[in-house]
């Protein structure tokens, strides 16, 4: 739903549940909006509502939240303040905000610290020291090239391992003809934020809204 298209006024609607995870808002037997609850692979239940009128959205969202038990969540464009407010008014609370970064693949390579080697495999690059795995990076290449994971063992952080992993991954993509990659970072993670702000520009954000179990 794009809330910039909300129109003034609202029809008198009846909210009915038409199937598992599906609700319709009916205006004289005409569908004026619908809501859906889907179970993600991780087991979380995700909500979506599509309606032209804000009051119709409100009725659908509140009915869905009343009908559904347990934890619920939805993801909203961080710039869509009207939709954020609508979901919060319905009963969801702020969960987290993630920022998307665009990363040029021409970053200057950074060498790992002495004693640490980078070992690439088909799906990831692992940082190894003394035979132990101390960090890794994973890149997903579906539709766009995205850094999906960067992690360093806590006792080995602040040594430049994460930066070396990122520049290695970007260099491999550059050699494959890729000009830019993407990463999504939780704004509550200052270390990851600082890392990726050193490589690229922050663009858009997404906000997760949640309701804990009841």
Care to describe what's here?
- With 214 residues, this protein is an alpha+beta fold.
- The chain has helices at residues 54-67, 81-90, 161-175, 190-197, and strands spanning 14-19, 22-27, 30-39, 45-51, 72-77, 93-104, 116-120, 124-129, 132-142, 144-152, 180-186, 201-211.
- It has a twelve-stranded mixed β-sheet, covered by helices on one side.
- Mean pLDDT is 91; it is low at 1-7.
CATH topology of the largest domain: Aminopeptidase
Share of helix, binned: 10-25%
Strand order of the largest sheet: 1-2-3-4-5-12-6-11-10-9-8-7
CATH class of the largest domain: Alpha Beta
Whole-angstrom Rg: 22 Å
Beta strand %: 35-45%
Low-confidence stretches: 1-7
In this structure, how is the largest beta sheet organized? 12 strands, mixed
Strand segment tally: 12
Number of helices: 4
Mean pLDDT, to the nearest integer, reads: 91
Alpha carbon gap, first and last residue: 27 Å
Name given to the CATH homologous superfamily of the largest domain = Gcn5-related N-acetyltransferase (GNAT)
Strand-pairing-aware structural class: alpha+beta
Number of domains: 2
Q: H/E order of the elements?
A: EEEEHEHEEEEEHEHE
Domain N-acetyltransferase: 71-214
Keywords: Transferase
Pfam family, one: Acetyltransf_1
Protein name: Acetyltransferase (GNAT) family protein
């Amino acid at each position: 739903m794009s809330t910039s298209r909300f129109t003034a006024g609202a029809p008198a609607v009846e909210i009915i549940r038409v199937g598992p995870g599906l609700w319709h808002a009916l205006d004289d037997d005409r569908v004026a909006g619908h809501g859906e609850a889907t179970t993600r692979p991780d087991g979380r239940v995700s909500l979506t509502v599509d309606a032209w009128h804000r009051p119709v959205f409100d009725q659908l969202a509140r009915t869905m939240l009343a009908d559904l038990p347990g934890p619920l969540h939805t993801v909203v464009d961080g710039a869509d303040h009207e939709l954020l407010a609508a979901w919060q008014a319905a009963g969801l609370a702020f969960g987290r905000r993630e920022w998307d970064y665009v990363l040029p693949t021409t970053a200057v390579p950074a060498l790992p610290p002495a004693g640490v080697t980078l070992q690439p495999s088909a799906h990831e690059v692992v940082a190894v020291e003394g035979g132990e795995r101390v960090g890794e990076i994973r890149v997903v290449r579906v539709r766009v090239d995205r850094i999906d994971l960067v992690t360093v063992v806590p006792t080995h952080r602040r040594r430049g391992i994460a930066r070396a992993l990122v520049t290695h991954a970007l260099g491999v993509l550059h050699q494959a003809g890729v000009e830019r990659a993407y990463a999504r970072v939780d704004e509550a993670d200052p270390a990851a934020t600082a890392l990726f702000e050193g490589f690229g520009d922050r663009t858009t954000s997404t906000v997760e809204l949640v309701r804990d179990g009841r």
